[in-house]
Amino acid sequence: MSIEQTSQSMSAEFVQINGINYSGLDKINNDLEVHYLIYKITNITNGMYYIGQHKTCNPTDTYMGSGHYIERAIKKYSSSNFIKEILFDFDNFDDMNNKEKELVSVNECYPNNPMSYNLVEGGSG
To answer: How many Cα neighbours within 13 Å face the side chain of 96?
Structure first.
């Protein structure tokens, strides 16, 4: 695993791990074997974002979301133009799912929010 400290044009600090730009790593609970993450992927070229959930044993894996719009955007702009921010690290599915429901309401989804890559309300995935 290669880790490189860097910064981007918006002057926010992030760390690059296996080719993915991360922030919010201080929110990872290293005592957990399984992580139930809420993350935010932000396109640094246009400011659009995606909020999602992910169950994993490796919180710095290369998973970047399964939403149709975010997958297309990563293909178009390249993953190097995105920052993955860990927002929350839970120890169970229910807490993760409830937090995603709270953060990704219908008002936060496209087309109601044109800056969002989310197409459906949180907690439904």
So the answer is: 20
